[in-house]
Design a protein that fits this description.
Layout (H helix, E strand, L loop, with lengths): L22 H15 L14 E4 L2 E11 L5 E2 L2 E2 H15 L2 E13 L4 H17 L4 E9 L7 E11 L2
Parallel strand pairs: 5-6
Antiparallel strand pairs: 1-2, 2-7, 3-4, 5-7
Helix pairs in contact: 2-3
């Protein structure tokens, strides 16, 4: 006689909904990720977690990190490059911060046409110039065909709260 497996670690899987920013994301953060990294030394914040947060001991500085994985890469009004800059700058602004600097990390799928990479990089740079925020550091990785959906971008922004 077989039995239905209880939900043990070896049977649990990450779902798309875990990355959608809703209830499943909150559960994943609270039950797995935050305990693994030590959570919040001063206790969790009241209410939901935000997309940006003040730095411990430096409340005038705000930091945000966001990953961008969109399909298609190009859409009416923009592309993944402009979205990455505007998304991070917006997350800082919601916390009352003016952006000081950005970091940009690219994960590029082997075989991506260089013309598409040039276009994404150009719109990313244009968006950063328009927002008056320099890209001061970053990273680039290339993964094998099929290991990514063309290009993934992660941006980290740091800003200062506007008095």
């Amino acid at each position: 006689m077989s039995s239905c497996p209880n939900p043990h670690e070896e049977h649990e899987r990450v779902l798309l909904g875990h990355g959608a920013g809703g209830r499943l994301t909150a559960e994943l953060l609270e039950s797995l990720l935050l305990p693994a990294v030590g959570g919040f030394p001063a206790g969790p914040p009241e209410g939901p977690l935000e997309d940006a947060a003040p730095l411990p001991g430096r409340p005038e500085l705000v930091m945000s990190t966001d990953g961008f994985v969109v399909h298609p890469l190009f859409f009416p009004g923009g592309d993944i490059g402009s979205l990455a800059v505007h998304g991070t700058v917006n997350d800082l602004a919601v916390m009352g911060a003016r952006p000081l600097a950005l970091s940009v990390a690219l994960v590029i799928e082997e075989g991506l046409p260089l013309s598409e990479l040039r276009s994404v990089a150009g719109s990313l740079g244009k968006a950063a110039r328009e927002a008056e925020v320099p890209v001061v550091t970053g990273d680039t990785k290339v993964v094998g065909r099929g290991a990514a959906d063309k290009i993934f971008i992660t941006t980290t922004g740091i800003g200062t709260r506007i008095p």
